Write the structure tokens for this entry.
Amino acid sequence: MAVSLERRTGAVAFLYWLWEGIDRTIFTGIKFSFPARFVSPFGFLGMLTFIIFVILGISGALLMFYYQPILDRAWDSVQFINDEVPFGFHIRNIHYHGSNAMVLMAVLHMYYQYFSGRYKIRNEVLWMTGVILGVVTILEAFTGYDVIFSERAELAISIAASLTTSIPVVGPTIRDAALGSGFSDFVLRFYAQHVFLLPIVMLGLMAVHFPRFLVFDVPMVMAIGGAILITGGVFPIDLGFKFEPTVPPGVTVPEWYLTGIYAFMRTQYDKFVTGLLWPLLFIISFVLIPFIDRYKKFSWRDRPIITAFGITSLAQIMVTTYWGFYISPDISVPLVERLVIDPIFFYSVMILLVPLGFGFTYMMIKLANEAERKSKLAKNSGPKKVATISLSEKWINWVLVALLAFQVFLNIAAYNAALTGMKNVSLFIIGIILLVFAAFFHVYRYSMSEEKNAPPPPPVPVQEEKPKLAEPETSPESSKLPEGDSSSNKPAPETKELSPEVPVPKTQADLGVGASDNTNLGSSDLSKP
């Protein structure tokens, strides 16, 4: 009786039945590609953003079991989750660091699509929905850490209230709808926006933004999950201080994705211009990029103006983000004065960054294109060489020292985390396990792909041929024989010249015998008269 190896039983049969049944649903509108080989992580940053969104949905749903969206109980319920609920610390850290990772992945995905020119392949709608989705992602993260109602959340809420109030005509209406009247019910409103309204908007945008084919790479999914857990283990998020209206707030700043706007507002210029108009112009300019970019090529080198604009925007974001975090350490100065940024100095630097960043980037692109053109000419005319990057011994030592210093820093951070409790260490260990699993999975995938390649044939042994002796050269005249000669009918014996004949000199005694005389003379002949 023959046994079939294709028989599906148990969980495998159920998974195949489920997968085949999904063919009748809308799920088939999106095709998943599981690469058999390594694919650049930049190729599926959008997929990683969606995976983090799923992680946030699951962890957020678990936190909803214990969180109480009530003004005087919000912070206490979060403290109860963090300290008393089993695995509450882990869930909260995963949710917090996952929200930061989602914002970071969304920004990286947007800039990768920007510099690679993917919006030029009739993807204008995908690009526009992607930019809007990035803005909604930031709003989702913003409402998430506000529902704790800590001192940091109170600062963010006050900024949001002042910004919405500064909007002409419709500002007060938007403020009352989003925040309510005062602090009485804003927690419940932010909670409704965070868990229901904004996720619905994000799902709708994702349904339009997702391309037809998605690359799902298991090692990268495990790696991003491990990175979130390791970050939660090494840098556990604290609760902060509970906001008390009667207690003056301490020095704090918003999250990193909002400190750029916070830096503009600290110049004490018009709130509507600094907090809303500048970010709005920035977003609109990115939305209109597909209609402004008229280059026919996709490479960032072939689109110098667009690339220079992107690099300049990145420089602006990094500088303003750092400036939003900076607070003067001089405690002798009042807190309000420490938070104020000199507007003349701030805007002078920001305006100066535009021509410097744009001009420097444009010049570097031109130099890179010229260097590439010369290398192609040299490659076609000269010997073919493979370009390599070689570091000197000095630079290698510096890289090793930097890696060692980073390793020491991680070890100290892990030790400090262990002092506060084993919760941090458990997150760290699980993250390391996921990273190791991702590495093993990738090595396994690589070995399976290499196994399909046929090995090269074994080398055939080559027998060494003995050198042949040179045959004597015969002149054409000597090879011709007269007609009728009997020797012409006989085959000529084969002769092989083993070594050249060396002429031996002959010595003749002066005996008065000519060369033509008989040379066969004996000693008896000489005695005759």
The chain is about 60% helix and 0% strand. The two ends are 123 Å apart (CA to CA). The CA atoms of residues 263 and 324 lie 4 Å apart.
